[in-house]
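Page 42, continued from yesterday. The earlier attempt failed because a stray header line got pasted into the input along with the sequence. Redoing it now with the clean sequence only.
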Amino acid sequence: MATIESSLKNMLLTLLIITAIAGTSLGFVYKLTEKPIAEAKARKQQEAIKQVVPEFTNNPADEAIVVTSPEGLPIKLFPAKKDGKLVGVAVETVSNKGFAGNVSIMVGFKPDGTIINYQVLEHKETPGLGTKMDKWFKTDKGHQSILGKNPGSYNLTVTKDGGQVDAITAATISSRAFLDAVRIGYKSFMENKSKLEEGGAQ
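This time it went through. Structure tokens are written below.
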């Protein structure tokens, strides 16, 4: 009986030691990779901003404003300025209406709200269907392109829903989510335009 108890204690002690070592190792690896991951994310964000707004001389991230979408998701607005004047705003916006989850994009607007460009940041849509959004809404064919359109006067919903934009073939849900994210970004920009012109992170 004593042998069995001793073996059980040894097993528990061994398991405890292994768990402690594994936990410490994971913590060490996390600390080791935390900074590089954050730096890579910041670089990706900065590159996306550059792709969607005109040339700027400020650091948009320093003057960014974070607001909340109707679904409770964070929307980040980055004012691009040249010599102190607002030349565009990059909005990191998101919709939770995707076929397989959230659709996150960076969309650039002129000061009057006209769409300059966009970059898809993250999504989990069906490969070959929803993933076409990277280029579909930039293609000057039919009523696909949203570039140069102003959501204030152009109905940025799919034609199936009475809007003016052709949905991605066989990917209507993904198209709806993408356009929903753009509309959320536009609304967030318009509601905070004066703050962005003044500057100052919140």
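Notes: The chain has a mean pLDDT of 89.
Reminder to self: strip header lines before submitting.
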